Amino acid sequence: MRIGDAAAAAGLTPRALRYYEQQGLVTARRTPSGHREYDAEDVRRLRVVRELREAGLTVGDVRAFAHLLHTLPPEGVPDLIGTEPGAGRCAAAAEEVARRRLAELDGHIARLTRLRARLAARLGEPDGRPGGQGRALRG
């Protein structure tokens, strides 16, 4: 199938599909006229990538275990922290990457929470809730 059909079947845009191809997450075959062609396995792989991205992983995260994506079950991405039968090495690799991503997100959240508390205090909202004194910012 051509890029538009494959993208639609995977729940992506053609632009996203080209980007994932550029990042090495899927490889299109070319027709003699140079058009990209995808098959059902490519669409399944793209759905897995989409699900992993929706779960919070980056393209770089997925690329770290892309060579194992074909081992995931065809009915969708299992819980990354679970022991889904058949997922094997890919689930273990995905879990490791996901745990690293969680730690990074926790760090970002902690940093943003500190920044928010600092700004809220400047606005006279030391408890971090709206509706404080509304004082002007001080330099």
Helical fraction equals 40-55%
Strand content: under 5%
Based on secondary structure, the structural category is mainly alpha
Strand/helix succession: HHEEHHH
Number of strands: 2
Task: Give a description of the structure.
With 139 residues, the chain is mostly helical. 53% of the residues lie in helices and 3% in strands. The chain contains five helices and two strands, in the order ααββααα. α1 (3-10) crosses α2 and α1 (3-10) crosses α3 (40-54). The longest helix has 35 residues, at 88-122. The protein is elongated, with a radius of gyration of 21 Å.
Short précis:
With 139 residues, this protein is mainly alpha-helical. Helix content is 53%, strand content 3%. The chain has a two-stranded antiparallel sheet.
Could you outline the blueprint of secondary structure elements for this entry?
Layout: H1 3-10, H2 14-22, E1 29-30, E2 36-37, H3 40-54, H4 59-64, H5 88-122
Antiparallel strand pairs: 1-2
Which descriptors would you attach to this protein?
about 140 residues; single chain; elongated; two-stranded antiparallel ribbon; mainly alpha; 5 helices
